[in-house]
Write a structure and sequence with these properties.
Layout lengths: L3 E5 L23 H12 L3 E6 L4 H7 L10 E5 L21 H6 L9 E5 L2 E2 L2 H11 L8 E8 L10 E9 L2 E13 L5 E4 L5 E4 L4 E9 L2 H17 L9 H10 L4 E6 L5 E2 L6 H13 L9
Parallel strand pairs: 1-2, 1-4, 2-3, 6-12
Antiparallel strand pairs: 4-11, 5-13, 6-11, 7-8, 7-11, 8-9, 9-10
Length: 300
């Protein structure tokens, strides 16, 4: 069974200042998502599901989905703050989305096969899609048998500011925990550093695995997620900025002994437009990837 690619495309890029998902960055107007879809097709994915906001559905269908017709089956689901489990009502003043794992839950009714979750505005690289597609296609005989691609932090940095990364700890090749570090940057001497909870600067080895939100799940993850989302809402329904993130749910399942997350290594180099100043460099990188034959003149 071919896995499905689940693309989280409901967010706005606040630091970048626009709707990054629709930004043409390739030499023929390609978006970052176009490269992800192309690489996923080459890796063996059989369907794409996008989660978006209803208010930009028209632009999304016209500018994005139309180009995939005849190449791969596509479905769209919608994330909104009022899509909550039975028994919960969204507070009237809630404006912030409920987070990435709430977005994942929106796919429950349309995804019945193993699936990978990605961000719409991150370039992951072909090897990353290949390693997770291969892992998702192996036979499984239990629930909670999941995976993630652990990017090497040195392959995920920007020269234009700090980045937030989920720094992973592992044992026997499986994830044991993810700690969100919100300000990882280059020190003047070239080291990769962050400031810990005590205010002390810490150095990260460039090979340290970090989460770039490239997760691999089977459909039983939806049931676990719905259960944990209910617990989250019981505690934080009225907390305006509380969000239900994928690592939050995954961490609970690991600690409960209900899931294992195999950490897959890749030599792919991530890049994306975290800041407006990143854009020219990304445009240049895509032009070079077409020029050197990594990508054809036209993807679709």
């Amino acid at each position: 069974m071919k896995p499905t690619l689940f693309v989280l495309a409901a967010g706005m890029g606040s630091r970048y200042g626009g709707l990054k998902q629709l930004d043409p960055l390739g030499p023929n107007g390609e978006t970052i998502m176009d490269y992800s879809i192309y690489d996923a097709l080459q890796a063996g994915f059989g369907k794409v599901v996008f989660v978006i906001r209803k208010d930009f559905e028209k632009d999304f269908r016209e500018k994005i989905l139309s180009k995939y017709e005849g190449h791969i089956p596509v479905e769209v689901v919608f994330q909104s703050t009022d899509k909550l489990p039975e028994g919960f009502t969204c507070p009237a003043d809630r404006t912030k989305p409920w987070g990435t794992n709430h977005a994942v839950l929106m796919g429950k009714d349309v995804i019945k096969e193993p699936f990978a979750v990605i961000n719409a505005d991150d370039f992951y690289g072909r090897d990353a899609f290949k390693v997770i597609a291969d892992e998702l296609q192996r036979p499984r005989d239990r629930k909670g048998d999941y995976c993630m691609v652990g990017f090497r932090v040195g392959n995920t940095m920007t020269e234009n500011g700090s980045v937030a990364r989920g720094v992973c700890s592992t044992a026997d090749g499986n994830l044991t925990g993810v700690v969100e570090r919100t300000a990882i940057s280059y020190a003047p001497d070239g080291r990769i550093v962050f400031t810990d909870e005590e205010g002390i600067e810490q150095t990260l080895d460039p090979m340290t695995p970090v989460s770039m939100n490239l997760w691999g799940f089977t459909p039983d993850y939806f049931d676990y997620s719905e259960r944990e989302f209910r617990k989250f809402l019981e505690k934080d329904l009225n907390t305006p900025k509380a969000e239900f993130f994928i690592p939050l749910c995954v961490d609970t399942l690991i600690k409960n002994g209900e899931a294992t997350i195999k950490v897959l290594d890749t030599d792919s180099r991530w890049f994306g437009v975290t800041y407006a100043a990143d854009r020219p460099g990304v445009v240049e990188k895509f032009a070079e990837l077409h020029k050197n034959g990594t990508y054809p003149e036209k993807l679709f």
